[in-house]
Amino acid sequence: MRILVTGFDPFGDDTVNPSWQAVKRLPDRIAGADIIRLEIPTVFGRSLEMIEKAICDTGPDAVISVGQAGGRPDITVERIAVNCIDCRIADNEGTELHDAKIREDGPDAYFASLPYRAVTQKILEAGIPASVSDTAGTFVCNYVMYGVRDLCTRKYPDIISGFIHVPYLPSQAAEKGGVSSMSLDQIAAGLSAACEAAAEYLKERA
User: Fold this and answer.
1) For position 132, which CATH number holds?
2) Distance CA 147, CA 152 (A)
3) Catalytic one among 87, 141, 152, 195?
């Protein structure tokens, strides 16, 4: 059993992205599952291309994508991704789209196949604030969540996937003033709990 976990590189004005910093800290095995880590760029197109290549190369049973949601106070497990790109800022290669579709002939939305309630509960049981979210945004995080679900629906129906947003690190919050944050240790522990919940679900499904 394998779980592919992805995190983004820094974007916008930030010099660090807690999603990848936390993913890097995950152990090699969690609840009997091999953990495969992948850093992806905050870039439309190339981010999904890298995930698809990793899926082809490693054959995971689950894909958990992780991104930064600055200002949120807890770890949020996303329920749904929408077929929309509407940028507040450009991606890391300068692309800035508005009111565009991710896939012209795709459905309006995809629900996560990752068991988002079980994942949220497992994070809470680890003593880490978490909740289910209904907004993955309209930037690259939502693009990746939608794109991976679309890819798996069309080509890899046995792979479950979903998206998790994590807060700013304290060092980021100190520069922004008045925003919530969470320590890197807590974020990493929360992601570890999420992988554990995914592994338990996969075992039950087998």
Assistant:
1) 3.40.630.20
2) 9
3) 141
* 141 tagged catalytic: yes
Cβ atoms < 10 Å from Cβ of 28 = 9
Measured CA to CA, the distance from residue 123 to residue 139 in angstroms comes to 25
Q: pTM higher than 0.70 for the full model?
A: yes
Q: What are the backbone angles phi and psi of residue 110, rounded to the nearest 5°? A: -130, 135
49 is catalytic: no
Q: Please pick, among 78, 84, 152, 195, the residue that the annotation labels catalytic.
A: 78
Catalytic residue among 87, 165, 195, 196: 165
Number of domains in the chain: 1
- 98 catalytic? Reply is no
d(CA 165, CA 176): 19
> What's the pLDDT score for residue 25?
98
Rounded Cα gap, residues 161 and 192, in angstroms: 16
Residue pLDDT, tens place only, 24-71: 999 999 999 999 999 999 999 999 999 999 999 999 999 999 999 999
